[in-house]
Amino acid sequence: MVVLTPPVITLDGKSDRLSPGSRIRDANNMLVMSGALINQKVAVNYLREGAGNVHEVWILNSEEIKLKRPNSKSSWFSF
């Protein structure tokens, strides 16, 4: 994920949006403001809300990045 201009983000190079009230948690499970991540590429897990916008985001630590899900083709994944 890359935060461009909040709430605009990219996921796997495709344009997307954060929902109003979205929450981003860092590798230590602490809340992070989207503005603090502008132009930084981070590996994440995320959940979407009913309208399809990204609502919950967890930035992965180095050990989590190495894990692969059964349906994943890369270490960047969502559930």
Topology:
Blueprint: E1 2-5, E2 8-11, E3 14-25, E4 31-32, E5 44-48, E6 54-59, H1 62-66
Parallel strand pairs: 3-6
Antiparallel strand pairs: 1-2, 2-3, 3-4, 5-6
Broad structural category:
mainly beta
Main sheet attributes: strand count, strand direction, barrel closure: 6 strands, mixed
Share of helix, binned: under 10%
* DSSP strand tally: 6
Shape: globular
Please, could you describe this protein's structure?
The chain is 6% helix and 42% strand. The chain is mainly β. Strands 1, 2, 3, 4, 5 and 6 form a 6-stranded mixed β-sheet that branches. The longest helix has 5 residues, at 62-66. The radius of gyration is 12 Å and the shape is globular. The mean pLDDT is 90.
Comma- or semicolon-separated keywords:
79 residues, mainly beta, six-stranded mixed β-sheet
Q: In short, what is this structure?
A:
This protein is mainly β. The chain has one helix spanning 62-66, and strands spanning 2-5, 8-11, 14-25, 31-32, 44-48, 54-59.
